[in-house]
Amino acid sequence: MRRPAHHLLVCGSFRGAGAKGVCLQKGSHGLVAYLEAEVADRGLDALVSTTGCLKACDRGPVVVVYPHGAWYGGVDEGVADEILDALEEGRASGAHRIGEP
Q: pLDDT over 90 for what percent of the chain?
């Protein structure tokens, strides 16, 4: 498999006892489907994956974008669009960032 230019990691709230976290409760699984559709529609060279709990439950849903290493909190479809718009422009989005890489 060829490595994509970008990798979007969406917190799936998976923990030792299963998926129970805040990101799941706030719709992270639907966000995965939305991101996958948008990536395809925009023709972005990006892979969308679900992760285990990223331990930032107070900021969920959480998305991490590589290679930028940028963490985003409170991601919904609108925030996802801002993140993807920035990727199309070759930069990381400044909105909804959690800390600094």
A: 67
Residue with tokens 């991490």: 64
What's the predicted TM-score (pTM) here?
0.91
Domains of the chain: 6-88 (3.40.30.10)
Handedness of CA 36, 37, 38, 41 (dihedral sign): positive
What's the chain's length in residues? Answer: 101
Report phi then psi at 4, rounded to 5: -75, 160
